Each structure stands twice: as C-alpha cells, then as structure tokens.
C-alpha cells in the first residue's frame, strides 16, 4: 500500500504498524520500510510518532544509506506541528551537507516554500541545481523536481527567466507550458465568471494532475540486477547452470551498462541498479517455491529488490563513484563512452 492512497481507502495507522513489523523481518530494508511507515503516520495526523521513527532511523548503529533524506523529512514534519526552530536548524544542516541526492534538496526547499519562505526556497533550489546539474549534459529524471520547483518559486517572486528556467522548459513534457502552470495569477481565474477563463484553468489543472499521476506511476526504478564479484563467484559455485547468464564478471558488468544505456536511449525513465546477494536470492527463490537454478527468477528478484527500496539511480551523479564498486568515479569507469 502506497502512502498516496486516499485516506478513505486505507487505515494509515494500521499500514504504518504493518510496515514496522515488516522492517523487523527484513532489517536490510528497514530504512525504506520505516520511511514509508513514517509517511503513513504523517497522513494519519500522528506527526510526533512519525518524528520518533525518523529519530529511530537516525540513531541506527548500522548507519543509513541516505541520512540526508531522513533529516529532510524529519525537518518537514517537525515544521508542520509547530517545531519551526528545530526544523530550520535541520534544513540548514542539510544545505551545508550538500547531498548529491536531489530528494533531500527538494524536500527542504518545498518545506520552505510551503511556509511562504520564498526567498529561502529559491536560494535552496538554486544552490541544488548549481551543485547537481552544472556541466551535466542531460538532467537525470530525479533532478527534474528541482528545476520545476525553482521555476515555480521564481514565477511567484516575479523573477525573469534565466538559463535554468530554460532548461526546466526543455525537460517539461506537458502541452501546457511551465509559465502557465506556475502563473501566480491562476488562483484568481478559479473565481472568474468568464467561461473561457474557467475552461482554460480546467485544462491547466488536468495537465498538472497528469504530471502528478505520471510521477506516481514510478514508485521504483526499472532496475537491472548487479552481482558483486564475490557474490557472483559464490552464486555460480552453488548454481553452475547460471553460468550461461553470467559467463564472466567483467562481461556481467558490461552487460549491465549496455542494457541501461539502451533503455535510456529508448526513452525509458527512472532507471536503477539493484545489488544481489546469494542468501537473499535463495530466500526469494524459496518464497516463490522454485529453485535458484531457475534463471527466469533473476528479473523477478531484481524487481522485488527495487520494490523494497534497494535500487540506486542510474546514471550516478557527476563525480559520484561508479555503480560497479570499483572505487573509481563513474566517468572514469563504466561512464566512459567505450564502456
């Protein structure tokens, strides 16, 4: 059950409790599951308990995959039930940390925006796009909300278009322009008695709803399965028949990069990589009442890992480490043209 499900169709408190129980069964996925549980608690109105979950994650002795995201969500939640000073301090900490993941930036900027801190929101969006998109040939899908949010806030502040606004227009795919969608005067048209103005506003609202639904249709990336060298060796020793799928580790890595580039070239958005482990794969095969030797399980296993929040977005941000685990930057490793 996703947190955006209408309240009349789900008991958010019960769903949060179910996700907490599931996190206990799958500790390796606890971060993603508890974040979803916190979202349900926020929707139920129990924001203090949601903050408790965020604190639980942040105090985890095992560390987090994305601590900046958890802090951003905690700040946004705190501000909504009266803890403005603490929220502001956390937001400033997120900005100083300068995460490479766009999601924390979006959350803190939108939190500022929702509390009419438009100048601060604009500064945050702008800092994020400069840090994450400077010299990037094409903005990854995950960064689009940064461009759109910045465009929206600049329209509300009455600022003229700049190069980042032009880039936002380029990646925007709906028939109605961003200038129309983000027009501060739109609210007045809702009270108009002019049928033409009302019809135009209905069209704009439909376009916005279409964009929202399109975003929600991607709860997790289209993911490709990656086996680290040690795990692949163990996998093939235990299940030699899978060697037809994975002749060598080097070929396996090259195949991943080629497949992702082909998917990207075909227009498939929101691509990612999930990393497998032999025990996890064996448990998945058992749950499917099948043998790990069955190669048809591999894509299903990848999809299951992605649905549990295990996917890492591809391609990595500029300067980030390569997904293969070599320790080199992506641009120096599989990100090269000849990879």
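Q: What amino acid sequence fits the structure above?
A:
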């Amino acid at each position: 059950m996703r947190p955006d499900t209408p309240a009349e169709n789900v008991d958010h408190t019960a769903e949060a409790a179910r996700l907490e129980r599931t996190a206990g069964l799958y500790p390796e996925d606890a971060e993603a599951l508890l974040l979803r549980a916190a979202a349900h608690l926020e929707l139920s109105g129990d924001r203090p308990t949601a903050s408790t979950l965020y604190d639980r994650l942040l105090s985890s002795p095992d560390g987090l995959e994305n601590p900046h995201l958890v802090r951003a969500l905690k700040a946004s939640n705190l501000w909504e039930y009266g803890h403005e000073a603490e929220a502001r301090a956390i937001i400033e900490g997120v900005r100083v940390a300068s995460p490479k993941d766009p999601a924390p930036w979006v959350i803190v900027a939108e939190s500022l925006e929702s509390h009419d801190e438009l100048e601060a929101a604009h500064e945050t969006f702008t800092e994020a796009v400069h840090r994450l998109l400077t010299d990037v040939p094409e903005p990854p899908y995950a960064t689009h909300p940064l461009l759109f949010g910045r465009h929206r806030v600049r329209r509300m502040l009455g600022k003229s278009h700049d190069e980042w606004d032009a880039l936002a227009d380029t990646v925007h795919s709906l028939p109605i322009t961003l200038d129309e969608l983000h027009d501060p005067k739109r609210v007045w048209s809702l009270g108009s008695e002019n049928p033409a103005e009302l019809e135009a506003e209905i069209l704009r609202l439909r376009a916005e709803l279409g964009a929202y639904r399109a975003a929600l249709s991607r709860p997790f990336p289209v993911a490709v399965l990656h086996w680290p060298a040690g795990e692949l060796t163990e996998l093939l020793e235990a299940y030699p028949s899978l060697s037809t799928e994975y002749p060598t580790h080097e070929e396996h890595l090259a195949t991943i990069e080629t497949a992702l580039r082909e998917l990207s070239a075909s227009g498939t958005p929101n691509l990612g990589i999930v990393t497998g482990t032999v025990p996890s794969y064996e448990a998945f095969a058992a749950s499917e009442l099948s043998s790990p030797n069955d190669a048809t399980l591999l894509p299903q296993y990848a999809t299951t890992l992605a649905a549990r929040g295990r996917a890492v977005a591809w391609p990595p941000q500029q300067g980030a480490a390569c997904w293969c685990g070599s320790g080199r930057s992506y641009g120096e490793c599989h990100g090269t043209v000849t990879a």
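Q: And what stands out in the fold?
A: The mean pLDDT is 86.
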